[in-house]
Design a protein that fits this description.
2 copies of one chain form a homodimer. The first copy, chain A, has 146 residues and is an alpha+beta fold. The first copy, chain A, has 4 helices and 5 strands, in the order H-E-E-E-H-E-E-H-H. A 5-stranded antiparallel β-sheet of chain A has the order 1-2-3-5-4, with helices on one face. In chain A, strand 1 and strand 2 form a beta hairpin. In chain A, helix 2 packs across helix 4. The longest helix of chain A is centred in the middle third of the chain and has 22 residues. Chain A starts with a helix and ends with a helix.
Chain lengths: 146, 146
């Protein structure tokens, strides 16, 4: 769709980084100052809902989402993983895969809830450093699916 | 786990209604005053993350989640479906499957965001009436999977 930002596949460097792109999906490392390691798995074609996809397509997408979850857990050791497909603002299927920590800005709320705290700078810095390992870890996790 | 509310499987009538229970999962119709049709698909056993499940278990759970999505779309005709597995407060796998409407209390934010508006009473009433068809629609959708 011409007015859909996820159809355009434009990604400004300040928004994030394309980590992997396949025929059907792509994986973005989101540049979120409060939640390092936040990734997004996007279906390339414009489709609104998971149940608009065929069963095979759903499986393929969820397999990628869980590969990203696996890589995030391996690299970041979060206290919890959050996974969500919302799309109220951009109704083009995309999954948020977010490592959550007990001291992160929104914990224990959702990543879309009110900020509850400031993460200690030293923790944030350590996580941002760890995130540098994430693109390779995700690519390896996806390669191992084949 | 003894202190996990989702392990206990207690459900007060004011919290919601058990719609379906299988060996591995159960489906709850949540009693949310602002979001009629809000459902929860809960893994019965205490497990924190999707990637703690085997591949077969993940597939089984997601198939149920999408069956619930299908039934919700069929009955409620929402503007968008939101699906999320968060679990920051209760780290026991449960999926929220939420029909969203442009005039609902949180749109276009997440169901965990700040309220943006009051839904017109007449719309809420119509949706609450529709929800009465949902338990049967979900049971049928799940039965058709077998």
């Amino acid at each position: 769709m011409t007015n859909c930002i996820l159809c355009k596949e434009d990604l400004k460097p300040e928004e994030g980084q394309l980590i992997w792109r396949g025929d059907d999906c792509r994986v973005i490392l989101v540049n979120d100052p409060d939640l390092p390691g936040f990734c997004r798995v996007i279906w390339n074609r414009h489709v609104s809902e998971m149940t608009d996809l065929s069963h095979g397509e759903r499986d393929h997408l969820m397999t990628l989402v869980f590969a990203v979850e696996e890589a995030i857990r391996h690299v970041m050791h979060p206290d919890k993983i959050n996974i969500a497909a919302l799309g109220n603002m951009v109704p083009h299927i995309h999954w948020h895969v977010i490592p959550r920590f007990k001291d992160d800005a929104f914990f224990p709320g959702s990543a879309w809830s009110i900020k509850t705290q400031e993460t200690p700078a030293i923790s944030l810095e350590a996580r941002r450093k760890k995130v540098q390992e994430l693109p390779t870890a995700i690519r390896v996790a996806i390669a191992e699916l084949a």
